[in-house]
């Protein structure tokens, strides 16, 4: 039940934006984005509840995966594999919440609690698929809570480590040797949800921080970066119908600047050859293509070669996507509150920022929100390579993704992070156990292992550390991230910590 007038405002706004900012909405052919028939289909889908979707954890032992798959398949045909993503299953909201769906519901919840599968919206599964991190990669998730994409990234890193190395001597699987930095400004969301999501996965490579993403002190350090930025969220209207009540194009005006700051910091943290995904769950070009274009333009001015990657080769086959927009309009929204209800008049800015009157600038409109000018044609064509997901085309929520590659020649891991591991000893963010410590000897006895290195290294990649509360297994690359943050004066370990973890299959460290 969304207010009809708000739906009409939404329609009017997006009929213009999604048809490429045309002056005459609906002047395009019936099947094209923004046309009346296309908008009807979009709005009709936004009114339908989202299906329940579940992603299978691939890093669990094969026997557990087989068991989970068999159990899920026993709920067929109501629960079925997502056609373009064999590790995901979906079920209509109506069945899931019906009396007949109760057993399925109970089982899915149990599987989620046990970490065998995770509730996750299908469009939100795309960024980790596009990033496809390897086990040795240094990965950063800038806005990570509640952690659905972080846990998908970690699941992939664990799976890659196991498949590359197989079993190691003495039992247990190979663990990732790279690092996964999971950051979110909201400390309580990070603690409650992010750490909670990771609890089910071994995580010796994971570091959780609660810093402003636009200030993360890295440069050219990461092979993979995800900037899944805070957004107006109108792509999630199926899941959160209450967004209708507060929906306004003004949200995009206020969010654009922080989204751009986060993306620019993400790009400067990317190592040459590295890959970044920028994503939102918004339809709004001001939060999407405008942010990507402004960031590409500033990289070009700085002489750093970045480009939007053509996604066709890496998109899961069967997934229907729309290309990014190359043209849109900037709303000059005059927002006001009427009887506690948000009401606003929609006007459009002049097509060029330079002709905007003072009042519009005071309302927060900035030059970076405007579409590319003719002289930026070459850069603008790259925007077509962005990915737009529409609910009526692929069945999930609305979503936007851009894959951006640093075109510089690939380089060895950055000096900062290599030094970080050494500095972490001086800055002491996470004290390592000395080789002569009785605790380490006791651990060795318990697990039948012998520390091999002078500095307490368990094997060549892992350290056992004591974070003041618990013993954690931390890989060197994660210590490098922690050490670098500590050397940059970030508060550690109170605001950052290694998620740590035990070897898969082993009992948690005592
Ligand atoms: C779209 S959500 C991220 C969802 C998450 N990636 C997932 O898949 O579960 C955006 C997140 O950004 C966080 N956030 C907002 N401003 C931030 C900032 N300046 N720096 C870092 N995180 C921020 C919010 O707390 C929120 O958790």
From TrEMBL:
Coiled-coil parts of chain: none
GO term, biological process aspect, one: RNA methylation
Keywords of this entry: Methyltransferase, RNA-binding, S-adenosyl-L-methionine, Transferase
Enumerate the spans annotated as SAM-dependent MTase RsmB/NOP-type domain: 42-407
Any Pfam family the entry gives: Methyltr_RsmB-F
Q: Which domain of life is it from?
A: Eukaryota
InterPro entries, alphabetized: MeTrfase_RsmB-F_NOP2_cat (IPR049560), MeTrfase_RsmB-F_NOP2_dom (IPR001678), RCMT (IPR023267), RsmB/NOL1/NOP2-like_CS (IPR018314), SAM-dependent_MTases_sf (IPR029063)
Q: Enumerate the GO terms in the molecular function aspect.
A: RNA binding; RNA methyltransferase activity
Location of the active site:
281 (nucleophile)
Q: Which residues bind S-adenosyl-L-methionine?
A: 143-149, 184, 228
Which family, according to the similarity comment? Belongs to the class I-like SAM-binding methyltransferase superfamily. RsmB/NOP family.
The protein, known as: SAM-dependent MTase RsmB/NOP-type domain-containing protein
